Prior knowledge:
The protein is α/β, with parallel strands linked by helices.
Amino acid sequence: MKIAVISDIHGNLEALKATLKDIEKRKVDKIICLGDIIAKGVHPKECISLIRTNCEIVLQGNCDVHFSTEHKNIDEMNEQEKKRIKWNQSLIDKEDREYLLNLPFCYELYMSGSLIRLFHATPTINNKAILNVDSIETK
């Protein structure tokens, strides 16, 4: 079985289409998306649709949560962040937001007798970056 793992689409429809075309060409059996379908790009709605159609497993990314959530403290945020949230939310509808907010945080499967745990960023939080310069303990 061939499995493709994709992540961090960020509303980039053309890149997603090209990736899915390449995956199809390689005769992949299952596609897994590790989140961040939306934010930054101008085609989040179309990307959500393609992910829903093509991916067997879809996890929630930090941008999926951040830009789908109705922020009660939005008035306390700086103007740039307010604009980012409002712009991203203007590109998707309530159904899209509910879909993104209800995606699972992680997914576990067995492959060749080994447990594989998939998540967007870390096993405990989906918005923490682990960098090459981080200590081995952090990694």
